[in-house]
Design brief:
Blueprint: H1 3-13, H2 17-35, H3 43-55, E1 63-67, H4 79-83, E2 87-92, H5 95-104, E3 109-112
Parallel strand pairs: 1-2, 2-3
Length: about 140
């Protein structure tokens, strides 16, 4: 069973986030024990192998800039490196995910921001939502 299927089953059961979070995180940790990776496709493991083989970088020597960091663990491109001593910058637009990243990954710098291709006023939605939680006009908590 993959993570997407597991999320669908949990959603269909109507479980609360309090019950679902430990189950999903446990699934990812179990996958790590078997496959030594946190991403579904093993991109994290492959990237670290390339850094080590071609550039001689490993553990604390690794630095990263994770754009769209999302969850601190599930599907993280940089968590494997973090566990091995690497440190870097995590960029995430969702302020709720930023809070989790700051709490669970204190060795990394968390940047609550987004890369966009136009000014919010030029957005088709008129800048009202702009699709990014941390860009709400007047949201001083995350500005």
């Amino acid at each position: 069973m993959d993570l997407t299927t597991l999320k669908r089953k949990i959603s269909s059961y109507g479980w609360s986030k309090r019950l679902a979070e430990p189950l999903l995180n446990g699934y990812v940790r179990g996958r790590y024990l078997v496959k030594k990776q946190y991403t579904a496709d093993g991109a994290d493991r492959e990237a670290l192998a390339i850094l080590k083989e071609r550039f001689g970088l490993a553990g604390p020597q690794v630095r990263y800039f994770d754009i769209g960091a999302n969850h601190y663990l599930r599907g993280s491109n940089s968590y494997l490196s973090y566990r091995q001593g690497g440190r870097g910058v995590l960029m995430e637009a969702d302020p709720l995910l930023c809070e989790g990243l700051r709490k669970k990954r204190p060795g990394d710098q968390v940047l609550a921001a987004a890369i966009v291709d136009r000014h919010p006023a030029e957005s088709p939605r008129g800048g009202e939502h702009y699709g990014l939680l941390c860009l709400f006009p007047g949201n001083k908590k995350y500005a």
